[in-house]
Amino acid sequence: MMVMQKGKRERRTARKIIKLGDKRECREEAKRTNDLTKSLEENIKILKDKFVNDSTVIFRRFQNRYLPRVKCCIVFIEGMIDFKHINMQIIEPLMEQDLRDLSTSCNLLEDIKNKVLPVNDVEESDDLERILQSICYGDTIFLLDGYDTALLVESKGWEVRAITEPESGKVIRGPREGFTEHIIKNISLIRRKIKNPNLKFKFMQLGKQTNTAICITYIEGIALESVLVELEQRLNRIDIDGILDSGYIQELISDAPLSTFPTVGYTERPDVVVARILEGRIAVIVDGSPFVLTVPHILVENIQVSEDYYDHFIFGSFNRFVRAVASIFTISIPAIYLALVTYHQEMIPTQLLVSLSASLEGVPLPTSLSLIIMLLIFDILREAGARMPTAVGQTVNIVGTLVLGQAAVEAHLVSAPVIIVTAISGITTLIVPSLIESLVLLRFILLILSSILGLYGYFIGIILIYLHLMSIRSFGVPYMMSITRFRNHDGQDAWIRAPWWTMTLRPKIIGAKNLVRQISNRR
Amino acid sequence: MRKKIVFIPLPAVMLFMLAACWNYREVNEMAVVVGAAVDKGVENQYILTVELLDVSGGAQTQVSTKVLSVEGETVFDAVRKLISVEGKRGYWGHTRILIVSEEVAREDIIEAISFFRQDAEARGDLYVMVSKEYDAREILNSDIPLGDVLSESLAKSLENSKFLSETPETRLYTLNQALRSGKISPALPVVTLLSMDDKTVPVLSGAAIFQKSRMIGYLDEEETKAMLFLKNEIEGGVLVTKIGTGRISLEIKGNNTKTRIKTEDDQLMLDITVQTKAVINEVTGNPEFSYMEMLDGIKRLSEEQLKSKLEKIIDKARYYRADIFGFGQKIYEDNPAKWYEISDNYEAEFANIAVNLTVTVEIPNTSIIFKHLELGE
Question: What is the pLDDT of residue B57?
Fold first, then answer.
């Protein structure tokens, strides 16, 4: 849910976005045909033609009080600009200020830019394409009669969401700010944490129709150049018409797009992005998305939570272990339960078998089918809960727990162990949010395998998953890095979170360029 | 590449074929057999009696058992005929005990146990026992002393018999090994019925001893304990020593029996040392000993009495010509050549084997309250 903060308007410089524009822009420079003319009326006509059928584009003509022969016009789009700023900083000085002493100069436009407009970012341009883009991005165009160039005056200002605690990835201890949809604000959140000129921000524009600003962030000297080059290549290859969320880019630059395991990381938390940048990763900030991408992304990052690093390392390690085990449990428990109950009854202790067969008495559906149905119902509830308004969400919860949990067992539609297994599996899925996409699907695949082949099927599934994970890479980094080995500093930040004084080195490969994080701090 | 793709389904197909006989089977579709009994049949060869779990679900799980009997030409025949009686296929994976009647055991126990040995479901660790005086099915039909399932409580009492050391805890696989090797005569626990108030409950008492696969006699509790001493299978239990009219109960804390083989002039000799650690637990009567004397006396008396018990059981085994102590196994381990030499005529050889017994009872710690409670004046 977006919480709009009323009244507060954001104005930030974003000149670089357009300056460092992509290659397409350069191409168009060559075939410039409809450039501005020296006549104001004609220029207005050109722009009006461009923005025909768009009544949000405002053309405001006015003259200087002391020099009425100077006709000018500003063009801007309603809703993208800060009215107050335009009134006070652009119209007022141009109208009220005495421009007579400037009129003698040979280039009035230049003088207006340098002496009249009290705006931090003013640029002169005669490129129509560039002008149109600026208007769309919230700049105000200043046209002066007799000049075939225009001034692009910074005037952006639109409603943005305030910085709030991110919905995903809440913490008990740690910073509570989260990214917003505003790219400049997001950049400032990162910049505020790394006060270092080596922190680089490379802008580019993606989306042929949306012209979405994208920013590549990294620390020079820590991030690997090869990854940076590869990332830029992949981003440049994108030729999509619109980018509405970083999810588009995540999918388009992913190493293994068919795999449900994420090979591009995403987070809503600035502290997580900063920690990853410090380890040598590269972040991609997408305008309009509070989710910032990081590459390379390996499996172990999914179970690393920022709080692990802020808490005591033993507690952090324990929590991480719980998370790792839970994500294995969530895919395994239904499959193992099914395999034991329907294929390997000899492995169940006699007492348990007795109570199991008692609970299965009179249940019409086979265990495999009832497990699949219950898991599906859980997923329906999860999906319903995620989309519902909070007030309705509670109703969903009550109906889900009471009707499906208790009543179904009492009516002998499903057995109680199936409900327990579903509940454990369902809850454990939610422990690692970034893996939900994979775990929910894998759970069903393993369940079906073990309903065909028992424990054999389950283990075949596990082996296939393992092989798959071992086979994929993210920007050249093996996806299972740090998980499979404990030698040297490989395992320092995987299954456990080693104490900070022992983590003297950055992760292998990712941090290879500048491996030393700190000189031994051993106490 | 095309070749490779052809090979991918191959392991999958093979897996289906190699995975042997198993199937998707719901728990409530099977009749869980917890105990079985084999008797001599009237019309057919055998009567198989099974104790089945009868579970009723609902708000509270209620467990009870049903006992069914079926006749069959063989045990397996009876097992299959059970389906027509109970409606479900029996599931043998959770069978805890197998009771063989004395009649069957005296004839040949192999016939009775071969189904359980060969079946995929039945476990090797189920307990095999022999019913004395009563038919095996009568044991399964008797009252349950504790709990809901008779077989379960019988198996439990056998499991805990190591604190008593009066029954040999024999599982199916040890019986199989003993039968196959021929170097040790099997001894199975004996179960019989005891009337208590208005109930008839099964109790374990002593052991049944076998020669090859035929049962030849019984051992009572004391003899069984002596046998376990010689087999080095004592883990607990009580050693009662007589002092005049008094009795002293020693609790066995540990025992170590070593059997060494000596060959003198081609004559086998067994050197057996029994070292027992025990503590005084109970003193009755009023033995008049001073502390040190008493301790020494108890020790000496216990050693003497234990030794005589052990000698008695060796004599009894010799009489039956059944090597229930596994001396044959020891000889084979120590001197295989010698074993092959005597194995053809081992029963006779065993009856004449010289045994040199040394028994030591250690009483490492005694309580201060060792004296018999005296009434105040």
Answer: 62
Instruction: Name the interface residues of B facing A (CB cutoff 8 Å).
Output: 15-16, 19, 22-28, 30, 32, 34, 53, 55-58, 61-63, 91, 93-94, 96, 121, 123, 152
Chain A residues touching chain B at CB-CB below 8 Å: 341-343, 345-346, 350, 353-363, 366-368, 412, 451, 453-454, 456, 460
- Going by C-alpha positions, the residue among B73, B49, B52, B75 that lies closest to residue B64 is B52
The predicted model scores a pTM of 0.80
**Chain B residue with the nearest C-alpha to that of A406:** B59
Average pLDDT over residues A36-62: 87
Which whole number is the average pLDDT over A99-125? 82
Cα B243 to Cα B247: distance, rounded to the nearest angstrom: 6
Mean pLDDT (whole number) for B81-85:
86
Contact assessment for residue A26 and residue A58, using Cβ atoms and an 8 Å cutoff: no
Pick from B73, B68, B84: which is nearest to B35 by CA?
B68
Q: Does the distance separating the beta carbons of A342 and B26 come in below 8 Å?
A: yes
Higher pLDDT, A223 or B18: A223
Q: Which of B28, B121, B159 to mutate to test the interface with A (most CBs of A within 10 A)?
A: B28
Per CB-CB distance under 8 Å, the chain A contacts of B63 are 354, 358
Q: Would the pLDDT of A200 be above 80?
A: yes
Compute the distance between CA of residue A142 and CA of residue A152 in angstroms, rounded to an integer. 6
Identify the band that residue A345 occupies on the pLDDT scale cut at 50, 70 and 90.
confident
Amino acid sitting at position A207: G
C-alpha of A281 from chain center: 15
